[in-house]
Amino acid sequence: MPILACAAASLATGVCAALLRSRPLALVGLAAVAVAVALGVAGWSEGMGQMEASLETVSPDQVEMAREIGGRIARATLVLAGFAAPGLVAAIVGLLRARRSG
Fold it and tell me: Is this prediction's pTM over 0.85?
């Protein structure tokens, strides 16, 4: 949930920055995007590590299937971090609008 909260914050601050032509708000939006992506990558890394550790308890004939399913589950945090993309676009637009007005 923190990943989605950061993605929502990035979108909200990015849109506000674009509407108000505010460079500081755009920078906050970019920071929220960076935090969302960092949390997504950290979650993916942690999930892959846990999955690899748990493969030791799986029978040898089911290792590939467990690895595939575990990889899909671990990638879920990267998908959530992808929801920050609209916030990234909005923050960049906000930066460009702030540059033109200032």
Answer: yes
